[in-house]
Each structure stands twice: as C-alpha cells, then as structure tokens.
C-alpha cells in the first residue's frame, strides 16, 4: 500500500505558531522533504524531532518529486515542509502534489501559517475578495504587465516582496496603479512585527530602509475599466469623443445617444452641436 503525502505548514517567525498535529505528524513520518534542510533541522531540533531529511527546493522540484513518489509508492509516509509557512504558497509543493494525484497517492494538508492571510486580516482592507499574486517577476516589463492586469480590479491585491526590492516595487506600483492606499505587513509574528498603513506616496516620501520580511497589501481599484474609459472620454473634445465611437463602428444616432449618456446631458444638445 502507498504511503501518505503530508503538506505541513510551519511557523513564519514565531516557533509557537506550529500546531500539535504538525509536530505529531513530523514525528510519525518516515522522511521529511524540506526546502532548506539546515533551516528545517533547526525547527526539528527545537521540537526534539529526529527524522531523515531530504532537500526539496524549486530548482530540483520536478526531479525530486519523482524520487519522492517512488518512495511513497514503496509505502513510505513523507512530509513536505518549506522554510516558512505553507508549502506550495510561493514555495515548492505544487509539483509533488500533481505527481501524487497522478499516482493515486493520498495527500493530506496540515494547516497553519500563511504570511499573506495574516497580513490581509490585519490590513483593514477588504477581506471579502482578494487576489494573491505572490512574487512579481524581476523583469521590469513583466512586473509592469502583471500589475497592469490589476489596474481596474476592485479586489484587494496582495504581493510578496524581498526587502532589497521593496522600494523599487513600491515605485512600480505607484507608476502603474496610482497612489493607492497600501499596508506593509512587516516581520509578522516576530519581535519587530509592524503594520505600516498609508498611501504609497507618503510611504515612499518617508525614505524607509526596508528590513525583514514584507507582505504588500494594496487597496483594490475604486474605478472599473468602463468608468475610467468614460472619465477619459469626457476630458476629450466632443469631436474626439464622437470619433472614438465612430471608429468602433457606431452610426450617428447611436453615437449621439452614447455621448449624451457619458456626459449626462440631453441628446438634443449634442445633436445641435454637430449640425
Ligand atoms: N510559504 C510562505 C507562506 O505560506 O506565506 C511564503 C514563502 S515566500 C518564499 C517568502 C515571502 O513570504 C517573504 O518574502 C515575505 O513576502 C512573506 N513572508 C514570509 N514570512 C513573513 C513574515 N514573518 N512577515 C512578513 N512577510 C513574510
């Protein structure tokens, strides 16, 4: 019979944030696959857990997954842990889950910390709907393109960022999304835990020197794409406004109706203007 694959959440700073169940399972499994074995050894030593460790990180994820699947098929129970938080969330884990499903291996989540969830719930921003996009690309164009996808998204946007790239990323967010309200959730669960809540410009003006780990929470757009388009059109001349709809293939009657609606004025006024 195949073994079981456990995905175990570990603390994101404070070692007390591990569950009883996580410790119990870590003590029971045959093997622990860890993103960084030295880092995980510290955690295991703290809880007096003595188990064989194998490395499982992004660059070796595919190859290692196959090796681990073969051990699981041999009946071994395996735990996947990352350096912090929940495996598979901006961390290795996704690959082995896919392989395990293909091989009919039972997959069991052991819940616990996720940095962005804790940042979000204390942010004061809407928690009803949100988009978590993890780390942005290091490539500037890809970074801007990704952020542009969320320009009109009314959901709260959540990003992970390394401290040495934080200021550059805040500048790009400012450039693409405008001066939104944001929350920087720093060093969650650790001694220097801090929530910085302000608009991006004010935060940039403070010239902070980022230290530690950050989650960036960005308020969703207050305008949808249609509203934005109408705002821009209303700033144009009536001729330009007319041309915009003409190029979209509308006839004169339709265009006048649309312009009147966009500008909240009588159709007749527009009609008079154009004769
Ligand atoms: N798997 C983790 C999780 O469940 O949240 C995320 C791992 S990802 C490689 C690391 C990023 O998560 C950091 O760069 C930071 O953005 C965020 N992060 C992790 N721990 C954090 C903490 N204690 N405070 C703030 N952000 C944290």
Query: How widely separated are the two ends?
Result: 83 Å
Low-pLDDT sequence parts = none
Which class of the largest domain in CATH terms? Alpha Beta
Going across the biggest sheet, name each strand in turn: 3-2-4-1-5
Bound molecules: S-adenosylmethionine
Q: SSE string, helix = H, strand = E? A: EHEHEHEHEHEHEHEEHEHHHH
Helix amount: 40-55%
CATH superfamily of the largest domain: Tetrapyrrole methylase, N-terminal domain
Counted up, domains total 3
**Class from helix and strand fractions:** alpha/beta
For this structure, the CATH topology of the largest domain is: Cobalt-precorrin-4 Transmethylase, domain 1
Number of strands: 10
Largest sheet: 5 strands, parallel
> Averaging pLDDT over every residue, what do you get?
96
Q: Number of DSSP helices?
A: 12
- CATH architecture classification name of the largest domain: 3-Layer(aba) Sandwich
Label the overall shape: elongated
Radius of gyration: 26 Å
Strand content: 15-25%
What are the SSEs and their pairings?
Elements: E1 4-8, H1 20-28, E2 31-34, H2 37-46, E3 53-55, H3 61-73, E4 78-81, H4 94-102, E5 106-110, H5 115-121, E6 130-135, H6 140-148, E7 156-161, H7 166-177, E8 181-186, E9 194-199, H8 200-205, E10 214-218, H9 225-234, H10 238-247, H11 252-263, H12 267-274
Parallel strand pairs: 1-4, 1-5, 2-3, 2-4, 6-7
Antiparallel strand pairs: 7-10, 8-9, 8-10
Helix pairs in contact: 3-4, 6-7, 10-11, 11-12
């Amino acid at each position: 019979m195949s073994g079981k694959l456990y995905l175990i959440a570990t603390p994101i700073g404070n070692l007390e944030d591990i569950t009883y169940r996580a410790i119990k399972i870590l003590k029971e499994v045959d093997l622990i696959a860890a993103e960084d074995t030295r880092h995980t050894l510290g955690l295991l030593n703290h809880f007096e857990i003595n188990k064989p460790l194998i490395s499982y990180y992004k660059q070796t994820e595919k190859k290692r997954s196959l090796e681990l699947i073969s051990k699981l098929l041999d009946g071994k129970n395996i735990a996947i842990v990352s350096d912090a938080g929940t495996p598979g969330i901006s961390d290795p884990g996704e690959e082995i889950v896919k392989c395990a499903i293909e091989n009919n291996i039972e997959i069991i989540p052991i819940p616990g910390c996720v940095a962005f969830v804790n940042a979000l719930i204390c942010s004061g921003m809407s928690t009803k709907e949100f988009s978590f996009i993890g780390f942005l690309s290091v490539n500037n164009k890809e970074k801007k393109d990704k952020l542009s996808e969320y320009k009109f998204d009314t959901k709260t946007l959540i990003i992970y960022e390394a401290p040495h790239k934080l200021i550059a990323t805040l500048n790009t967010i400012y450039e693409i999304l405008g001066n939104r309200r944001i929350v920087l959730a720093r060093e969650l669960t650790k001694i220097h835990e801090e929530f910085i809540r302000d608009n991006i410009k004010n935060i940039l003006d403070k010239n902070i020197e980022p230290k530690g780990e950050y989650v960036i929470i960005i308020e969703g757009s207050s305008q949808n794409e249609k509203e934005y388009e109408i705002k821009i059109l209303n700033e144009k001349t009536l001729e330009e406004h007319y041309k915009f709809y003409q190029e979209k293939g509308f006839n004169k009657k339709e265009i006048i109706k649309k312009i009147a609606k966009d500008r909240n004025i009588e159709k007749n006024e527009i009609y008079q203007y154009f004769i």
